Amino acid sequence: MSQTTAQTLKPMLIQGEWVSTPGQEFDVVNPATGTVNYRMSAADAQQVDLAVTTAHHAAHQLAWRNMLPHLRARLLMAIADGIEARKEDLARCQMLENGKVWSECLAQAGSAAATFRYYAAVCETMVSEVTPSRGAYLSMTRYEPYGVVAAITPWNSPLTMEAQKVAPALAAGNAVVLKPSEVTPSGALLLGEIALASGLPAGILNVVTGLGGVTGKALIEHPLVRMISFTGGTATGRAIGVAAAQRLIPTALELGGKSPHILFADANLSAAVDGVVDGIYEGTGQSCVAGSRLFVQRQVLDEVLDRLMQKANGIRVGLPDVADSEMGPAASFAHRDHIERYIQSARDEGGEILAGGYRPDAPELAQGAFIRPTLIAGLSNQAKAVREEIFGPVLCVLPFEDEDDLIAQANDTTYGLASGVWTADYQKAWRVADKLQTGLVWINTYKQLSISTPFGGYKDSGLGREKGLSGMRLYQQSKGIYWSMNPNNMP
Ligand code: NDP
Predict the structure, then answer these.
(1) pTM of the entire structure?
(2) Whose C-alpha lies nearest to ligand 1, atom 11?
(3) Residue nearest to atom 33 of ligand 1 (CA)
């Protein structure tokens, strides 16, 4: 693939070839500076059809379908090495497109390599089952790929999300058509380039860039797509779920969140406040697991608010490539407008803005989509900013009286992705973790993640679990085989 400049039209990857679509393009903008990074090719239904058809043929090639697990694992390891070798290039793609600070982009590129390594190991070691038989036959369960998987990713952490979908889908023997967000397309293209250079057969991983309503829609509606893996907002996920239901194909949906972060009076307040601050402001709050609703036991509310104000006001908002920047811009100007609308709604509903709520005034940030870390108190659990996902650096703080009150408030949400509990009482931690309706619970920590632990949400936060062994099964369908040991033996 050619190197890019602001004027370059970046091509997409179909059938191992770089395909440009002059005249059918969109801008990719750097949210820290407002400048156009490059123009990107946009796939229409015809290019999507070519990508899916290509993937379908590639998936059914015997050399790919029957590849021995240790050889498939070797290929995934080679991709992991390729990612590691180009970690800085991948990190730069992400930083220039969603504005995350450099250290976080680099860490996410490293995590993408680790994900490929993990699924290489899973691919080589995961077993099929011999199940208990009820007669003179051998009964077995084996796991087969679906064929073509459509993988659709959002803009907040594209490097990790793309690895989390592509690595297990390939490990399971599928071919993939990847559609990254229009905001962050180039990391996916570089992943495609790395995979090709690592020896992945052409057509097994295709990357189509373009707008969700055109490229994404054509992809999910394509009759040869046999499974959809989507991460993004709940409204888009619901629409994709409906389209998949019409076609009776499975979907994995990793969606939004409004995670309760809970601080009991007996907690180590200093550690808890640090955890709360990282849990909401890291990545400019654009994280599906951001702890955006903070419930504080009333007797320590004032002290916690004081500490939070100091921390939020002390966060260094800056250009993502400057070494001491702790928080970059919102990922796009449209997204900053969206965040600001929620802050205004909090004001309108009587919320008190204790920190932030405005754009930083440093001249070097004036052209970017920056917004200060924002802390809001005084809202009810029914306020719009408390109920809806803002996906920005906005923390709403609410008091609670006791465990019953806390559980009622924390679970009073349509979402159920993650939660965090800080307390010195291990029995209380256990009771609360048991009652929280979320797919993940952190106790005296927050945002710790492991590729081995299944990840996904309750309620409107999604369907299915990525990561871990279940993250591989997501991309496989089981086949039961009954094999008679006695030809005359019929039931
Ligand atoms: P969107 O739902 O808007 O978009 C996600 C992806 O879907 C993008 O690639 C988008 O393309 C594409 N898309 C949009 N419309 C369609 C359509 N009709 N058919 C097919 N594809 C479509 O989410 P965002 O990109 O705004 O991401 C933010 C959301 O993602 C947040 O709500 C967040 O909570 C959630 N998220 C969830 C995570 C989880 O694991 N649970 C992790 C990270 C984020 P395009 O960009 O071109 O519009």
Answers:
(1) 0.96
(2) 212
(3) 256
Helix (H, G, I), strand (E, B) or coil at 171: helix
Query: Quick check: CB of 420 below 6 Å from ligand 1?
Result: no
pLDDT band (50, 70, 90) for residue 488: confident
Cβ within 8 Å of residue 314, ≥6 positions away: none
Pocket test for ligand 1, best of 41, 181, 228 (most atoms within 8 A of CB): 181
For residue 411, give the CATH number of its domain. 3.40.309.10
Terminal Cα distance for the chain, rounded: 60
Residue nearest to atom 21 of ligand 1 (CA): 216
Closest-lying ligand 1 atom to the alpha carbon of residue 154: 25
* Run of H or E including 242: helix 234-247
Q: Please report which confidence band the pLDDT of residue 486 belongs to, taking 50, 70 and 90 as the band edges.
A: confident
pLDDT digits (tens, 9 = 90+) for 291-306: 999 999 999 999 999 9
CA-based nearest residue to 419, from 427, 411, 160: 411
Considering the domain architecture, whether residues 129 and 231 belong to the same structural domain is answered as yes
Residues 247 and 264 in one domain: no
Instruction: Tell me whether residue 123 is one of the annotated catalytic residues.
Output: no
Q: What angle, 0 to 180 degrees and rounded to 10, lies between the N-to-C axes of helices 87-98 and 102-125? A: 130
| 288 catalytically annotated | yes
Distance from residue 68's CA to the centre of ligand 1 (Å): 35
Q: Compute the half-sphere exposure of residue 290: CA atoms within 13 Å on the CB side of its CA.
A: 26
Q: Which domain holds residue 221?
A: 9-255+457-479
- Is 466:455 a contact under the CB 8 Å cutoff? yes
Contact call for residues 376 and 385 (beta carbons, < 8 A): yes
What is the average pLDDT across 3-29? 88
Q: For 19, what's the count of Cα atoms within 13 Å in the CB-facing half-sphere?
A: 23
Which tokens is 289 given? 């697991």
Q: DSSP string covering 352-402, please?
A: EEEE--S----GGGTTS-----EEEES--TTSHHHHS---SSEEEEEEE-S
Helices (H), 31-132: 45-60, 62-65, 69-85, 87-98, 102-125
Count CA atoms closer than 13 A to 326's CA, side-chain side.
14
Query: Looking at the structure, do residues 62 and 206 belong to the same domain, yes or no?
Result: yes
Among 84, 105, 74, which residue's Cα sits nearest to residue 170? Answer: 74
